[in-house]
Amino acid sequence: MSWLGLLVFTVGNLITRALGMFALGGRVKPDSPLTKLMALVPISVVAAVFAVQTFSSRDQIVLDSRVLGVAAASLAVWRKAPMVVVVLIAAGITGGARALGLP
Amino acid sequence: MSDTSSGLRTADILALGAASLAVGVTVSAVMIDIGTPSAVVMVATVTAFSGSGELAYAAVILSGGSTAAAMVSALLVSSRFGLLAMSIANRWPMSVWERIAAMQISGEPAVAAAITARDPAVARKLYWQVALSMAVGWVVGSAIGVALGNVIGDTKAIGLDAVFPAVLLGTVAAALRSRDSAVAAILGGVVAVVLVPIAPAGIPFLVAALAALVGARVRPGPLRRRPQPGVGGGGPR
Fold first, then answer.
1. Considering the entire predicted model, what is its pTM?
2. What is the complex's ipTM, to 2 decimals?
3. Who wins on pLDDT, B79 or B222?
């Protein structure tokens, strides 16, 4: 990335974030019926990022050791384990599965 | 900062910062590897604040794409930060300066932590704790990646690629205990994964946001059974 690229990347990011914060989100009144919808948007987006990072690589759906690591970590989340345990289980199971030769 | 409604404690917030640091090291090392000057990488870390955007850029360059295509991909992947900024805009009363700071360092875990809290003051506290911890980790990690290269080694071998999804699950889990949230999450996850092979990078996140429209039509209420640990997992698991 060049300095020019950096400028485009930075300004582009600022514009999308400002659009969300000021143009869209900032205009909705707290008692608006849209408030409920706005509370659900991040849940859908977070779930989308979660699913894409767990079940795909680049432009392909991929099932590999990550699925095992994330599944194990999800059990830890369900059991209300501390975040550091969740992280170590995710990395440990995924890395361990790969060490055993899984993709 | 003891217990909060989301169950995030100080140690959890520090763990999020540590995970963010590891991501910072690897992202910046990748950017250096594709020939980006150190100063550009370091400035981008702070001004663009999008590790996934940088990775998307590098992925296109590494597969032989043009810089223009790489930039389009980076911006599309980062476009979801606009949606995240939108969703916290009314969560608690904010001055213009707080809005600018909050939108600049917004990331999924901080937003996820904030939406688990009903009380606006708690949401604000959780947001800033998670966002600042992860921001410090991200910047420090990036500096390490620029200065020393990839000191972490083969990220796949140590399972680092599973850490961010696990962190997302850990932060958002508390928000998934009602039917409307569960619908928004599962549908969003499935839609995004299905679109991955078809749509350009970043677009699946934007389309998945429409799942919230469906979730909003579901009557809120507790899930009968325990919340599924794999909620949002769109794959055939």
1. 0.92
2. 0.95
3. B79
CB contact under 8 A, A25 and B190: no
Strands A56-57 and A60-61: antiparallel
Q: Chain A contacts of B127, Cβ < 8 Å? A: none
Counting other chains too, the contacts that A78-84 makes at CB distance below 8 Å and 24 or more residues apart are A78/B173, A78/B226, A78/B227, A78/B229, A80/B7, A82/B9, A82/B11, A82/B12, A82/B15, A83/B8, A83/B11, A83/B12, A83/B13, A83/B15, A83/B16, A83/B167, A83/B170, A84/B11, A84/B12, A84/B14, A84/B15, A84/B18
Residue pLDDT, tens place only, A68-82: 999 999 999 999 999
Q: CB within 8 A of B188, min separation 6: which ones?
A: A43, A44, A45, A47, A48, A51, B208, B209, B211, B212, B232
Give the 3-state secondary structure of residue A60: strand
Q: How confident is the model at residue B235 (pLDDT cuts 50, 70, 90)?
A: very low
Q: Using an 8 Å CB-CB cutoff, list chain A residues near B15.
A: 82-84, 86-87
CB contact A102 to B (< 8 Å): no
